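Q: what sequence does this backbone want?
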């Protein structure tokens, strides 16, 4: 059955690959980002899928922009079946390089952006009585890793919020899922100077997500296996062990 899907953060990386797959499958897709209407990739897809694809700009840090986008998105195909939140920014920071503006941007986009969209779109889904929300978090939400706290803290907050909301949304007929994935080769991870285990392309990550959401519902989608297992184990260990292990991850110039 064809779906009406709204992806927030759909102009590059995993989001763009998901847009391509969903369009190829015959779904109606709304792709949003801060400057989505200027995206060459989305505009090229619009030429091919003129009736299936709608492009809407949204600034998730602005409640007024979010209100406008939610109204536009819901009206475009007379409703939405799946809302996928994929917007994110990322900066690597040590305490020496700490930049409060970077941290605020990550919190506003990676976490509060989802909260703003959720606040506006929830009444629509409640009235509809069914639907699916998918929030793209990160394996880093399992445990805070050196130099990555500005990114992983909002992602951990997003995961915690999802855990809190899932039972209540489930009663309303809304299926909430989170995606916790590892390193993906995008403009964000290009900022990393360290080795990224099991680094994957956006295409592979998108295919993994699609594969799981087509299966019977489960709350969490996580991959790749080795990195996921390591971080899940790290979360379960006593801090006297886990923090010794993460200390070893510090760059030589800091440790």
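A:
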């Amino acid at each position: 059955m064809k779906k009406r899907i709204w992806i927030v953060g759909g102009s590059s990386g995993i989001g763009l690959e998901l847009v391509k797959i969903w369009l190829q499958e015959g779904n109606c897709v709304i792709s949003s980002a801060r400057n989505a209407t200027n995206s060459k990739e989305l505009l090229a897809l619009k030429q091919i899928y003129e009736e299936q694809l709608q492009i809407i700009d949204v600034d998730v840090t602005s409640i007024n922009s979010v209100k406008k986008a939610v109204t536009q998105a819901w009206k475009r195909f007379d409703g939405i079946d799946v809302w996928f939140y994929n917007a994110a920014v990322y900066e690597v920071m040590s305490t020496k390089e700490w930049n409060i503006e970077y941290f605020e941007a990550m919190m506003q986009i990676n976490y509060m952006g989802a909260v703003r969209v959720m606040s506006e779109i929830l009444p629509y889904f409640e009235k509809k009585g069914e639907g699916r929300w998918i929030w793209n978090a990160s394996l880093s939400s399992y445990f805070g890793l050196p130099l990555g706290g500005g990114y992983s803290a909002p992602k951990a907050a997003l995961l915690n919020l999802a855990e809190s909301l899932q039972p209540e949304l489930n009663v309303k007929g809304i299926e909430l899922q989170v995606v916790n994935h590892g390193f993906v080769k995008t403009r964000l991870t290009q900022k990393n100077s360290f080795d990224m285990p099991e680094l994957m392309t956006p295409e592979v990550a998108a295919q993994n997500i699609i594969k799981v959401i087509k299966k019977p519902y489960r709350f969490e989608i996580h991959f790749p296996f080795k990195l996921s297992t390591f971080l899940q184990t790290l979360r379960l260990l006593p801090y006297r062990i886990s923090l010794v292990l993460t200390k070893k991850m510090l760059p030589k110039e800091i440790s």
